Structure formats: structure tokens, C-alpha cells
């Protein structure tokens, strides 16, 4: 659900903004009708309830924003880790006999290209799995070439001890990154955050029941800040779809085999 919204970020923001404004106006009109029937509604002591609901929104925003920002940083760190692992393994190809190096270097260049292509753009689950399978095929090729080269008579003992563990680390991080793409808060948390924001808009509009006309300064301000906050949270959770991107870090992968 969140991903489908982020695939059209402008639509997501505009729709949410309009809904919040409409709900605030609905809350104001409900309040005015209640006041017309019972003037005592103003002294009903509902401020405590409003405070609890707005506090709940604040807690949900703080929790989801903090966790989303943390996962965003972790995903960037994983790209750096993979670039380091690939770069280390690529450098250790120098330990192999000269005749075995060209094939491995070519496989490494193809592998890096496949890894960048796996995460570029907005891959569907099917295309992501296909790209990941291609990367694994090249991983198997690299491993076979490295094992065969390290067993050549003129290969130094250090080649087997240093190159193969580096390639193994390079392979392991691909599973870690693939798993990280699936780690998000359960959808009920996003649903509860959205519902709480809508309830706060209703209560905020109801608090303006004394106003004969909408207080557009406060209405637009509330709707804008809530829309922006919710979008940034979702954008951090899916950094390949919206405006906040980790794609620029892919350059580190490309530079690891230069």
C-alpha cells in the first residue's frame, strides 16, 4: 500500500493534503452544529481527550520516523560494506597467476554491473528476483574461477587463504542486502499512523467551532506539515522510490573494480 503511494509521490501528497483539509473543515462544521444545539459544548472538558490523541500522533511519528531513518542509514552502510568487500576481493586477484587474472577481472566487472542493475529504479519483485538470480550465477562463476586459479601449481599459498574468504564475504553481503529490502514496519503501524493523523485533523477542526469561516492559516499549516511528515517517513522506508535516494551510493560499487 505504501509503495503504491510512493510510486506517484505528487499524487500521494496532494490527495492526503486535500483529505486532511476536508476533514478539518468537517470537524469545524460538526462543532458548530453541536454548539447551535448546546452552547455548553464549549465547556465540555474535551481538551484532555484531544491532548491524548495528539500525543499519540506525536509518539507514532517519533517511533516510525526514528526507525525509518535508522533503516535508511543501515541500507547505505550495507552498500559501503559491499563495495569494500568487492574491492578487497578484486585487489586480491593480483595474488593469482597472470594467466588466471583476466577471466576473473572480467567476471567481477560483470558482477558489479549486475549488482547495480538489481537495485536501480523501481524494480518489481519479479524483476528483482531475476536480477538477483543473474548476480548469483556470476557469483558461482567467480567462485569456480577463483578456486581453479588458486589450485594452479604456480599459485602462491596466500591466494587460497586470502582471496577465497574475501569472495565469500562479497557473496554473503548480497543476502544481507536482499533481506534488508524486506524489513519494514508491519502495515498496521502505517495504517494506525494515518488514521491517527485523520482523527487529529477532525479534532483540530472541531476545536475551531467558534469560527464562522475556516481558519485557513492553521488548516493549511496543519495539513501541510502532517502530509510532509508522513511522506518523508514513507520515503525513508522505500529509498529507491521517492525523493530520498540511496542510488547515489551505487557509484561506490562501480568504483570498487577500477
Counting DSSP H or I runs of 4 or more residues, the number of helices is 9
The radius of gyration is 27 Å
Taking the alpha carbons of the first and last residues, their distance comes to: 40 Å
Approximate helicity band: over 70%
| Total beta strands | 0
What descriptors fit this protein?
single chain, 258 residues, mainly alpha, 9 helices, 0% strand
Task: Please describe what this structure looks like.
- The chain is an all-alpha fold and 258 residues long.
- It has one domain.
- It is 76% helix and 0% strand.
- The chain is built from nine helices and no strands.
- Helix 7 (187-206) packs antiparallel against helix 8.
- The longest helix is centred in the first third of the chain and has 45 residues, at 47-91.
- The model has no long low-confidence stretch (mean pLDDT 86).
Compact summary:
The protein has 258 residues and is mainly α. Helix content is 76%, strand content 0%. The protein is built from nine helices and no strands.
